[in-house]
């Protein structure tokens, strides 16, 4: 069950147009009225309302999950390949229940190398992709198919596919003899955690997913009886900030929930020049610009939302649908995610099988840069000083979120130095989360892109490029998409990852 405490609840005007609009959206949401978000949005909304019934509809999956986990019970190392909604949900479930799930949601060869279990004989790989055409996921699937074959193992006995019926992945996988579980096609990717995408990997970790479904169903019933907690949350996020809100997992015992919410809210609302950008911080007290609305699940904050994981999932999906109405945007599309995909696709077509020369303008110890400057410090200083008055900085790090994790310190350091909102994302993971927001919402972002050399690489079977080339094209493609909007972007390239990261942190501290 969910409880909401809002520090400024006395400011909530129940007679306001906004409050009435949210209440109206809530009542229509109960009836699955797909016209809530206007006529332009209704075609897509019509086929995206299935999430509302997942708390009960997904019970139908339970027998199938029992049968599958029994069939594959000899496999105890679980790898999940998937991006955005297809992996952020299962990842927070695994962390919350203290289970080990290897989440491959990157194309960085260093990160990939950590996701390849030593003992393939006892490994099960779950491939989750709603569309069945996401390049990261299809490439990861091809990599594992090849690895199982090379190890003399039957890949169809070590891999399970979750996808929409009739997606390219569904058709190809069934033709090759894989076990395929179809998801509900009337549920969008970021609203899918209570369906097969979230529940199947969790069931393989030995988690009793019926508990998650029960609490989400209870929360749905409670919201229907009393909409106030959801209305209050949506109202606070719309009126308590014009753009950013801080969010932290601290003390929640649900590590990764903020990342899941970041994707849900940023990708759903960040379009048409409006939106709300969740700034995920480690700790409730981490630096955010003064007066930023702070949200938490347990720590002291302006808006505290308590409740177990299943309740949080359903609650935030409901709130996001209300935010769409309150902000007058379509919460179910992601028009600008496609843009970066197309840009990287066309680079891959021209590059062939190798990354083009760096063409850097200069090098400062282990960091190469691409604009005229004496060194990285002066370049960074000028760049950060030029962040728009109420603007933000997005750090986009195309490196290894495990081995290079200390790079995340850059968020706090730069936030302190600049007093601006600073968000951190791992590439290409963030392209399926805040990536939509950066290109579609308020155009006041500045972008620090960090790429790196890689001394390992993996072939992508069936493609004429490798993962090293793919991640370079993704970074470059997104850089082009951002630059084409006239938004400031600074790229730094680490020639040596470990050294480059400590040099960069030291430079940021010295500013
Ligand atoms: O599950 P897939 O089709 O591979 O998509 C993965 C992700 O891609 C995009 O970013 C969508 O906007 C997300 O909602 C989705 O979760």
Please describe what this structure looks like.
With 511 residues, the chain is α/β, with parallel strands linked by helices. It folds into three domains: 3-41 and 216-327, Glucose-6-phosphate isomerase like protein, domain 1 (Rossmann fold); 72-207, 3-Layer(aba) Sandwich (Rossmann fold); 337-510, Rossmann fold. 43% of the residues lie in helices and 15% in strands. It is built from 19 helices and 16 strands. The protein has helices at residues 17-30, 39-46, 54-57, 62-71, 85-96, 109-114, 135-150, 168-175, 196-204, 209-225, 228-239, 257-269, 309-326, 337-351, 376-385, 409-418, 434-440, 467-483, 497-510, and strands spanning 3-6, 77-81, 102-104, 123-129, 159-163, 179-182, 244-248, 277-281, 293-296, 303-306, 362-364, 367-369, 392-397, 421-426, 445-452, 489-494. The strands form three sheets. Strands 11-12-16-15-13-14 form a six-stranded mixed sheet, sandwiched between helices. Helix 4 packs parallel to helix 9 (196-204). The termini are far apart. The structure holds 6-O-phosphono-alpha-D-glucopyranose. 6-O-phosphono-alpha-D-glucopyranose (G6P) binds at residues 83-86, 129-131, 134, 137, 188-190, 267, 334, 337, 432. Its EC number is 5.3.1.9. This is Glucose-6-phosphate isomerase. One of its GO terms (molecular function) is monosaccharide binding. Belongs to the GPI family. One of its GO terms (biological process) is glycolytic process.
């Amino acid at each position: 069950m969910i409880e909401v405490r809002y520090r400024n609840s006395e400011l909530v005007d129940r007679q306001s147009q906004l409050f009435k609009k949210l209440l109206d959206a809530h009542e229509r949401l109960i009836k699955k009225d797909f016209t809530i978000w206007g006529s332009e949005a209704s075609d897509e909304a019509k086929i995206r309302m299935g999430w509302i019934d997942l708390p009960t509809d997904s019970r139908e999956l339970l027998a199938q999950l029992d049968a599958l986990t029994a069939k594959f019970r000899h496999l105890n190392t679980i790898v999940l390949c998937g991006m955005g909604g297809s992996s952020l949900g299962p990842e927070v479930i695994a962390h919350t229940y203290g289970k080990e799930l290897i989440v491959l949601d990157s194309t960085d060869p260093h990160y990939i190398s950590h996701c390849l279990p030593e003992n393939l004989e006892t490994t099960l790989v779950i491939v989750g992709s709603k569309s069945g055409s996401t390049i990261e996921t299809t490439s990861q699937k091809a990599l594992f198919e090849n690895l199982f074959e090379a190890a003399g193992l039957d890949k169809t006995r070590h891999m399970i596919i979750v996808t929409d019926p009739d997606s390219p992945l569904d058709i190809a996988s069934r033709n090759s003899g894989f076990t395929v579980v179809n998801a509900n096609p009337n549920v969008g990717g970021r609203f899918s955690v209570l369906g097969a995408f979230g529940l199947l990997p969790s069931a393989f970790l030995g988690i009793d997913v019926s508990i998650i479904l029960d609490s989400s169903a209870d929360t749905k019933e409670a919201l229907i009886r009393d909409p106030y907690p959801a209305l209050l949350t949506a109202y606070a996020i719309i009126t308590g900030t014009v753009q950013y809100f801080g969010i932290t997992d601290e003390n929640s015992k649900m590590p990764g929930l903020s990342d899941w919410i970041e994707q849900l809210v940023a990708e759903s609302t960040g379009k048409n020049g409006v939106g709300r950008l969740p700034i995920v911080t480690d700790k409730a007290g981490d630096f955010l610009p003064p007066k930023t609305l702070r949200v938490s699940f347990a720590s002291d904050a302006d808006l505290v939302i308590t409740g177990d994981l299943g309740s949080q999932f359903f609650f935030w999906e409901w709130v996001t649908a209300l935010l769409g109405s309150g902000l007058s945007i379509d919460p179910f599309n992601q028009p600008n995610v496609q843009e970066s995909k197309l840009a990287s696709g066309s680079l891959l077509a021209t590059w062939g099988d190798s990354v083009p020369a760096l063409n850097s303008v200069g090098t400062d110890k282990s960091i190469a840069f691409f604009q005229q400057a004496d060194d990285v410090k002066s370049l960074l200083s000028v760049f950060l000083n030029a962040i728009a008055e109420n603007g933000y900085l997005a750090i986009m790090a195309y490196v290894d979120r495990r081995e290079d994790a200390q790079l995340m310190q850059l968020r706090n350091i730069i936030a302190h130095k600049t007093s601006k909102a600073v968000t951190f994302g791992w590439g290409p993971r963030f392209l399926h989360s805040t990536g939509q927001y950066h290109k579609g919402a308020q155009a006041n972002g500045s972008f620090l892109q960090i790429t790196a050399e890689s001394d390992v690489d993996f072939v992508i079977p069936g493609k004429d490029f490798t993962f090293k080339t793919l991640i370079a094209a993704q970074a470059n493609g997104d850089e082009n998409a951002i630059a084409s909007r006239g938004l400031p972007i600074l790229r730094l390239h680490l020639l040596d990852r470990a050294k480059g990261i400590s040099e960069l942190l030291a430079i940021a501290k010295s500013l």
